Amino acid sequence: MHEFYWVCLIGGVLFAFVTIIFGDILGNFFDGLFDTFSMNHLDFLQPMVLVGGITVLGGSGIMLNRYTRLEPLPVAVISLAIAVLVSVIVFFAYVKPMKNCENSSGFSMNDLVGKIGDVSVPIPAGGYGEVVMKIGAGLTNQIAANMTQAEIPDGTRIVVGEVKDGILYVFPFE
Description:
By secondary structure, this protein is of the alpha+beta class. The chain has helices at residues 2-29, 35-39, 47-67, 72-100, and strands at 116-121, 128-135, 138-146, 157-164, 167-172.
């Protein structure tokens, strides 16, 4: 059993070093592999939680074997309990908060339908202008045409009615 604990500990430490050195390469290689777990609400199966738990299992098993006079079965049970406890702490103290704070500046043009913005370049009756809209934490400038076929001056609040071929069709916000 002592060898099992050493394999767990060394495997976890090696995984940590490989992740630090080759993390971006491995992240691109395994891109999306763990998304299946996230979709099914199995976030606790993330590599950081699993490998962290295995590493702690190995380390606590070695320590309990060396510094206590417990039999192998109680050592295994206590080590497993410590590993589960540390994994739960890692999940709730690090993984879950980091997942909740992920923020992206990417958006789909279709997400803009129904959003309110401001005209930055006047939109003539039969032509194109520009609108500024707040998306997430930033602003985006988009080409816009008028749905009402009347000129919309700059500074006017608008609502996006539809998107066709990357152009926002807007009308004044009343």
